[in-house]
Amino acid sequence: MDSVTLGQVDLQLLHALHLDGRAPFSRIAEVLGVSDRTAVRRFARLRDTGTARVTAVVDSRGLGHAEWLVRLRILPSGAAALARELARRPDTAWVTVLSSGTEIVFILRAPAGTAAPLAGLTRHPRILGVEAHRLLRHLMERRWFGRTSALTDEQVSALRPPPVGTAAPIALNDLDRRLLPALAADGRAAYPRLAGQVGWSESAVRRRLEELRRSGMVRFDVEVDPVVLGYPAQCLIWLTVVPSRLAATAGALAADSEAAFVGATTGPHNLLAIAVCRDEDALYTYLSDRIGSLDGVERVETAPITSYVKRVAPTGR
């Protein structure tokens, strides 16, 4: 990825796309007070340099899938290649390499009621050990503060799309199976281009995507490296919390500006958090003063994140 310096308009544009990944640039430009051409040019620069992209994310539970948090111990020399191999799998999300270079953590999706498909991993020559635990619930409603703090409340209100419906998830059809991979690759692809890719009419593609969004089956996310936003210190935090304090602890963490994700898991740790900080000193302070002051926390394990190879976030709700 080329080095890019983000200006205020860039930060506002990214915040706007977090609110609605397919909002017309004309609408975004009007709210930001810039020209349509400026909004288009700024996003093209972010996309073409690999700084950010918009991607479609399908609700795993709506598909009847469970999410597994998988932690691999690996030979140090194999981290990069293995992470890329995992990222190419359609059933993985959020593939990360930890700072030791001997661990990879990722999300694996499988049909609910079945075991995680780990057979191929346990036989891999570079993998020394595998742990897999169910990601039971996402406990953070908002998105990380660092990605969504550039707009005023009035601008957010003007750009926020209507809330998704609460009806039962709709069943995916043949069009969806062609459409969703195209949107995962480019969440802002124009309707004529999508129609050409999937072999359906533009009106059918437009109508179906609106249905998927209204049902909550599909949402749009912006993949952007926190380092570009000025937050290079990123850390996985596994916590063992007494059951009576689990909900309160998760709620407290989810309200922190440093928190990018909070979720409940099975296994020896029952809570996973991702902290994103300005630097190592800020991360130390967060771990010692904030995490250390939480009631009911019996054990904490931390692991700095070296890199993300796949950024699609967990999607269960």
From TrEMBL:
<feature type="domain" description="HTH asnC-type">
    <location>
        <begin position="172"/>
        <end position="232"/>
    </location>
</feature>
<dbReference type="InterPro" id="IPR011008">
    <property type="entry name" value="Dimeric_a/b-barrel"/>
</dbReference>
<keyword id="KW-0805">Transcription regulation</keyword>
<dbReference type="InterPro" id="IPR000485">
    <property type="entry name" value="AsnC-type_HTH_dom"/>
</dbReference>
<dbReference type="Pfam" id="PF01037">
    <property type="entry name" value="AsnC_trans_reg"/>
</dbReference>
<keyword id="KW-0238">DNA-binding</keyword>
<keyword id="KW-0804">Transcription</keyword>
<protein>
    <submittedName>
        <fullName>DNA-binding Lrp family transcriptional regulator</fullName>
    </submittedName>
</protein>
<dbReference type="InterPro" id="IPR019887">
    <property type="entry name" value="Tscrpt_reg_AsnC/Lrp_C"/>
</dbReference>
<dbReference type="InterPro" id="IPR036390">
    <property type="entry name" value="WH_DNA-bd_sf"/>
</dbReference>
<dbReference type="InterPro" id="IPR019888">
    <property type="entry name" value="Tscrpt_reg_AsnC-like"/>
</dbReference>
<dbReference type="InterPro" id="IPR036388">
    <property type="entry name" value="WH-like_DNA-bd_sf"/>
</dbReference>
<dbReference type="GO" id="GO:0043200">
    <property type="term" value="P:response to amino acid"/>
</dbReference>
<dbReference type="GO" id="GO:0043565">
    <property type="term" value="F:sequence-specific DNA binding"/>
</dbReference>
<dbReference type="GO" id="GO:0005829">
    <property type="term" value="C:cytosol"/>
</dbReference>
<dbReference type="Pfam" id="PF13404">
    <property type="entry name" value="HTH_AsnC-type"/>
</dbReference>
